[in-house]
Design brief:
The protein is of the alpha+beta class. The chain has helices at residues 9-25, 49-60, 70-75, 100-111, and strands at residues 77-89, 92-98, 117-128, 131-141, 150-160, 165-174. It folds into two domains: 7-34, no CATH class; 49-185, Nuclear Transport Factor 2, Chain: A. Helix content is 25%, strand content 34%. β1 (77-89) and β2 (92-98) form a beta hairpin.
């Protein structure tokens, strides 16, 4: 009668992964030597999920022709992070995942010639350990005291790497008649 193997393929793979990680564990980081959020550059923007979101709104807002502090924004993102720009157009809903640098270039190209001020309406943070998900509803204007042009919701996935919070991904969707901002994220709704 043939003997049954005690190890299954998934169990063998898991044991192999643990064995390969053993030398790295001695360095206190089995996933690598670099913090997930990249090098800490002393900025306070990563102190909490709320400070990350606040910094993003500050960075993208400004009058026509203003130079935005994109370097500050890059420090808020983990290496490999994604910014998914979206729009509702004649062809329907469009989404374009890109790097933070590609997003900065797009922002300069589309909004650099006019004022753009984005402010938070409401925020929900759902966190567990080193991860957090933030819903942040927003309003955009051409000037700080101008009429609202667009409203919507930003969705951010954040990570705390042991030193600070950073963005793994951000995307958004603008409010439409078909999907209004939910009451929990709209201070104008009861």
């Amino acid at each position: 009668m043939p003997r049954k193997h005690l190890f299954t393929l998934p169990m063998t793979a898991a044991l192999l992964a643990l064995a390969l990680a053993a030398p790295a564990q001695a360095q206190n980081n089995p996933l690598g030597a670099t913090a997930a959020c990249g090098p800490d550059q002393g900025a306070t923007d990563g102190h909490s999920p709320q400070t990350v979101v606040k910094a993003l709104y500050e960075i993208v807002s400004g009058p026509a022709g203003a130079k935005k502090d994109w370097e500050r924004m890059y420090r808020l993102f983990a290496p490999g992070a994604l910014v998914t720009a979206t729009t509702h157009g004649a062809g329907g809903f469009l989404a374009a995942p890109q790097t933070p640098r590609q997003f900065a270039d797009l922002n300069d190209r589309l909004l650099g010639h006019r004022g753009f001020f984005e402010s938070e309406v409401a925020q929900q943070v759902h966190g567990f350990g080193h991860i957090a998900h933030v819903y942040s509803s927003y309003e955009t204007r051409d000037r700080p005291d101008g009429p609202v042009r667009v409203r919507g919701v930003n969705s951010l996935q954040l990570l705390h790497d042991g030193a600070r919070w950073c963005v793994l991904s951000i995307t958004w969707d603008a409010e439409t008649a078909a999907h209004p901002i939910p009451a929990a994220l709209d201070r104008a709704k009861p």
